[in-house]
Amino acid sequence: MAIEIKAPAFPESVADGEVAAWHKQEGEAVSRDELIVEIETDKVVMEVVAPEDGVLASIHVQEGDTVESEQLLAILEPGGAGADTGGQPAEEPEAAPADAGGTDAVSESDAAAMLGPAARQLVEEHKLDISQISGSGKNGRITKEDILKHMKSAAVEAATVEAATVEAATVAAAAPPAPASAEAGAPAAVGPSGERIERRVPMTRMRAKIAERLLGATQETAMLTTFNEVNMAPLMALRSKYKEQFEKTHNGTRLGFMGFFVKAACEGLKRFPAVNASIDGNDIVYHGYQDIGVAVSTEDGLVVPVLRDADFMSVADVEAAIRDLGTRARDKKLTIDDMTGGTFTVSNGGVFGSLLSTPILNPPQTGILGMHKIQERPMAVDGQVVVLPMMYLALSYDHRLIDGKTAVQFLVAVKDLIEDPARILLQL
After folding, report:
1. 399 labelled catalytic
2. Which of 8, 30, 89, 143 could make a disulfide contact with 50, Cβ separation 3.0–4.6 Å?
3. β-strand 344-348 against 292-294: which pairing, if any?
């Protein structure tokens, strides 16, 4: 009996999704729990796997189509026999004659099936022969990088042939008198060669949603940013002293700075509840808990998974959770629950070398803390100039709810806790 493969049940916050990629084609054999298709929503990429062994009989939606919750995607014919033959009749290979035309058609179809959506678009735009392109992706899949590499190689080859033709024509013709610059040995002008490649690709749903939310944050909030700087020497000394013992004690979890900043933010949010609040219409919602969003950079854009009840977590728990969320974010394994909620966000642009920036709010949150690069700078301490490892901190906040005084006091509280990390552990 045929099995209907449907889209996952989307939560209320997700209206629909887009078919990102089919990993199996009609007639192909599939195994139980094998990935069939990826559905990209505004927040996460959801995977649809095969419920049973069998053959993918028919596909009802194509890549790029918009699908709703529990919409029919494909029909699966169950059965292990079909899987063994790859969905083809057992006698077909013997009955098929050795016809070159038929073989080419099959190979072209197979090659087309190995194309990703972006790669397929480039092939169609530039009328490329996919049989001349080798794939570097999983199972020989042709990626857009393979297409661009092939196009670049073809352009270089064409430019080389053109240059050789011009050189031959120049030698055959009578050479004109050389200019003075050439006689003096001046180098000849070198211009661009080959095709100037330009490509246009549509935004992914996730990238488009991120753009929409960031633009909305700047237009719908009274966003303001205040800055301060923190001496990282005490925290760096603590980390250097205990990092090896910490890693051994906590099953390989590394001691970083994010754990301390998250805990410092939690303490600051307890002292200044307005920074932990959100605006709902004409109401202010004060949250009696601290769910901290941690900004994570992925190939598809910035995502913000949430640490639930971060105020009850230890530094080790925070570090382990951040590592797990970061890994799952880059592997596209985050769930909707991992992404929803959050009362405050911490973003660390310093890992990419950012010295100073203005973080953008993540609505409906009213505050976000930005960390930056640690840089040694000369500082005046007790009348003496001392070189210290300093970090700029930035707090962006919604001025509709948070006054400048409150924002500055919150940031100073975080600064004081980081410069004396024992206060974090003692909750002082």
Report:
1. yes
2. 30
3. parallel
